[in-house]
Amino acid sequence: MKKLALICAAVLSLASCSSLKIVDQNAAINAGAAAVQALTISDAEIKQLCSQYMVETDGQNTILPANNEYTQRLDRIMARFKNISNLNLNYKVYQSNTVNAFASGDGSVRVYTGLMDAMNDDEVFAVIGHELGHLINKDVRDAYRTSYLIVAARYGIGAFNQTAGAISQGFLGDLGQELASNAYSRKQETEADETAFQFCVQNGVDPFAMYHALNVLVSLSGNSGSQGKLAELLSTHPDTQKRATHIKQIAEAAGYKLSSSGTTGGNKTGVQPKKTATPSQSNSNSNNNGNSNSGGKKSVKVNKKG
Fold it and tell me: Is-catalytic flag, 131?
């Protein structure tokens, strides 16, 4: 909320700045009032906004059908997640060479074929776990709220009100641009990476899957032919190499040993690659809550932040 208040103050300042040569002073006043009102947008309204934005986004992309091999592969990967029913997820595959995936505040998860081609199932699982981390940690909600504040002020719209024309195609398009330009903080990325690791541990997935996935991105970023495909993902997920090192340290501190460094890349057949990590102690088991205990170590839980 402190960050939003600062943004609100900036919007108000710009609205009153004479150097901008604003012809219609009423419009400036409306923009400032809208910025103040937009601060009060509720979580339920944010969820509704996300849902409407996803309708727009889905309409701009090619969604693969249920019988497509990519969609079937994503079905298998998503089936490995346990205890996430409270997130009310819906997931789809976008046909695109872009190496990306994202989760929206209404529970929508979208994965691009470019990402699925570049990574194996464990790595795709970890990336989705990372995006779900942003959802669980309320990062997605805050990103939408901030972007709504900026765009609403621009349009002179204060309250979230469909009948007032707030959710026009132009508004949603500007909202998307704001979302794309506002990267998550380093702290948010680190927490999402750690949530991805927790998901992997809980669900019997390679504990180093997020580490490998990040290294795939680092590798692709050095390939000039892939940079365009990676531009969006890397712009919103900075410090990739440092993040890979951090998550490797987290896994090792939890008692796992890295036995292999390689990703197998695309894994359309759904045949799972061999685990690339093993617990430091051989006594491993999983309980009915989806939490994994390794050698008597404390189970890891994915906690919802308020």
Answer: yes
Q: Quote the CA–CA distance of 113 and 174 in Å, as a whole number.
A: 25
211, 261 contact by CB (below 8 A):
no
> Catalytic pick from 123, 131, 189, 194?
131
**Cα gap 101→93, rounded to integer Å:** 9
Rg (CA), the chain: 21
Cβ(275)–Cβ(206) below 8 Å = yes
Rounded CA-CA distance 31/37 in Å is 10
Whether this prediction's pTM lies above 0.85 is answered by no
Evaluated on CA atoms 48, 50, 51, 57, the torsion sign reads positive
User: Which of these, 144, 113, 118, 183, lies nearest to 41 by C-alpha position?
Assistant: 144
Res. 199: pLDDT tops 90:
yes
CA distance 289 to 203: 10
Place of tokens 């906004």: 49
DSSP codes, 124-154: HHHHHHHHHHHHHTTHHHHHHHHHHHHHHHH
Q: Are 135 and 174 in contact (CB under 8 A)?
A: no
Phi-psi region of 270 (alpha: psi -120 to 50; beta: other; left: phi over 0): left
CATH among 3.30.2010.10, 3.90.980.10, 3.40.50.1390, 3.30.70.360 for 56-138+185-294: 3.30.2010.10
* 46 three-class SS: helix
User: Which residues on neighbouring strands pair with residue 111, listed in sequence order?
Assistant: 93, 101
pLDDT in tens, 155-186: 776 666 654 455 777 888 888 888 887 778 88
| Domain parsing of the chain, residue ranges | 2-42+140-181, 56-138+185-294
